[in-house]
């Protein structure tokens, strides 16, 4: 199996998470303050990190927090602060949203001299978490680690678990590698991590993947569960869920891991399965590192 940029970037995550935690005292004043009403924006993976942070911030009692895909942001809604997440700083929808914002904007990006950083009132540049692969791993999880740390959640437990996974701990059963369909579920902020896991595996392997909040899973999606398929639970399962899934014959992945560490297992699985099929995990088909749209009215 050849080494990919994605594989190396996945392996950098524990160190990058520690670096993000060390940056917190320097950038804390640029992040949402307790009681502020906040909108968090992103696209793709960054949108899921925004949704995870929004759920975590509200659960911590830090203030009302809404997450939006940048292209769906209701710009006329009143907020005290807008947080935009964009690895490249060039994604069209994010740059447009920053330009339309009336509240102060803090952008989290990996590129200091990007349009998003230039357009925002404040920029937190995590250039040590930049990456070559089109498929996001290290930047997204490092950004969420910083945001979790700003809410008082330590980075060390997740980093230690992730390093253990990289070293071979918490291996997955063989049925997972052989599966032909994956469903990821989670509750609270873990629902956003489930969405990111489904996206990651879909991008790299072209497999059929889905994601749902835990309590929604039994409202229809469980009907596709059967032998040869996987249901992967992030966080603590609701009572009865594991029993109901096991009754279908599907393989259940349900381990006591921090969801970000568990996401590393999905990232590694994606690279492994992609390479097994001869796919390039760094450059999935039809994708680019940043989505830059043509100006309105331009000829396609």
UniProtKB/TrEMBL annotation:
GO biological process, one term: carbohydrate derivative metabolic process
Domain SIS intervals: 27-157
Keywords: Isomerase
GO function terms (MF aspect): carbohydrate derivative binding; isomerase activity
Protein name per the record: Sugar isomerase (SIS)
